[in-house]
User: Fold this.
Amino acid sequence: MTIFSRIINGEIPCYKIAEDDRFFAFLDINPVNWGHTLVVPKREEDYIFDLADDELADMMLFAKRVAHAMKKALPCRKIGVTVLGLEVPHAHIHLVPLKSEGDMDFHKKISDPDPEKMKQIANAITAEFE
Ligand code: 5GP
Assistant:
């Protein structure tokens, strides 16, 4: 079982944003920028482009709803989208609030982010999720 499946099952805590029957969104534990969110399918699949067409399309539509909520909740110009998948073998989309290109620099992660601030950000995004 992947670490993301254990988060989805509630075995490992996370700053949850939203879920439906097939997808789950939560804050990245080492964000590149405040509000950095991961969107994952509940079904385990390593490589995003091995997802079935409808699952991939629906995951992007779920990510769109999360991104709209992030843009309302956080000061930013746009929500950036990245797929890496080199660390955790469970397909996921990174959503990152952007004011400038440098906000999407995966070499500059916030280590040990303040838990209270993470909780506040997650709650603010969840409150805007439709
Ligand atoms: P990738 O697989 O896209 O290269 O990177 C995986 C991402 O998942 C990283 O940005 C990392 O910080 C995040 N991540 C890894 N383990 C955990 C975890 O246990 N909880 C959370 N919330 N994020 C994690």
